[in-house]
Amino acid sequence: MPFLLSRRSLLAGGAGLLALAPGLSQAKAGVTLRAAKYKGREDNLLRAAGQIGTPYTLTFGEFASGNVIVEAMNAGAIDVGSMSEIPPVFAAASGARIKAVAIIADDVNNQVVLVPKDSPIRTPADLAGKRVGYVRATTTQYYLARILKTAGLSFADITGVPLTPADGRAAFDQGAIDAWAIYGYSVPITIAASGARVLVTANGYLSGNYIYAARAEALDDPQLSAAIGDYLLRIKRAWAWQQAHLEDWATIFSDAIGVPRDIVLGQLRNASQPNDLKPVTDDAVASVQAVADTFSELGLVPGPIDVAPLFDRRYGDLLAKSA
């Protein structure tokens, strides 16, 4: 997977230089940390929060999904990046050389099952026998499986239709599917365009945990390992800034991704929890293990899979002390 450099220079400099925490003194000039950004979030957020002035060179590559970030990391193209709980499961199954080094608290209200506004489907149990779209091997397939199980159903009781988000939107608009498990800005945009109704959100079915992962070989390099720790602290502080400046961030992010500001701001205000970066805990490991077990049951990965070796807790004290 080729590494795609962002168009903007992210060299050290600017206001808000983060004082290095103890143990990070090796994160210095001469070191280049290659980070993944997802839909233009990380670089714009760090810049807005005044956290971009690193003592090392920081570059960003744009990636469309966590699975692609894992592939790039395993190929040695990037050093650190964020993702849902799903890609680490496939990493564990394939032997990918990544480590989960921090836990992201993120929104799950933006992950839902949509039905048309005039649909007779009123409860998850009504999905029986229906055509339900989802994005294969993502959070949507996981929370859909859990929603069905809670309703006494399984994938065998529906006609599951794996679709990309773009194809899912077309199928939903054309009536080719009866319900659609989807995430992100596709949710408010579809609701605004067609009056679609939220049948159920993923709140209570997804943990709300996401993952910051690092390339295993980067962690073996003392200077890169120190730079990763410093980068994680900057992300944590940038998210604290975001929470205190939702309207400012909505304007910046709207411009960056081309989504109307009112939709971005509405999703920020409706979030199930504020973004934060936390240490790896036993509960976080157990949550990813639950994903692995579910995907094994669905036949998506060979099972059983033990995800515990994927986790590296070296930044636990650093993130806890900075809270």
TrEMBL record:
Alphabetical list of Gene3D superfamilies matching this protein: Periplasmic binding protein-like II (3.40.190.10)
Residues in Solute-binding protein family 3/N-terminal domain copies: 26-248
Keyword annotations: Signal, Transport
SMART domains: PBPb (SM00062)
N-terminal signal peptide: 1-27
Subcellular localization: Periplasm
Gene Ontology MF, one: ATPase-coupled transmembrane transporter activity
Alphabetized SUPFAM superfamilies for the sequence: Periplasmic binding protein-like II (SSF53850)
PANTHER family recorded: ABC TRANSPORTER SUBSTRATE-BINDING PROTEIN, ALIPHATIC SULFONATES-BINDING PROTEIN-RELATED
Function: Part of a binding-protein-dependent transport system for aliphatic sulfonates. Putative binding protein.
Protein name per UniProt: Putative aliphatic sulfonates-binding protein
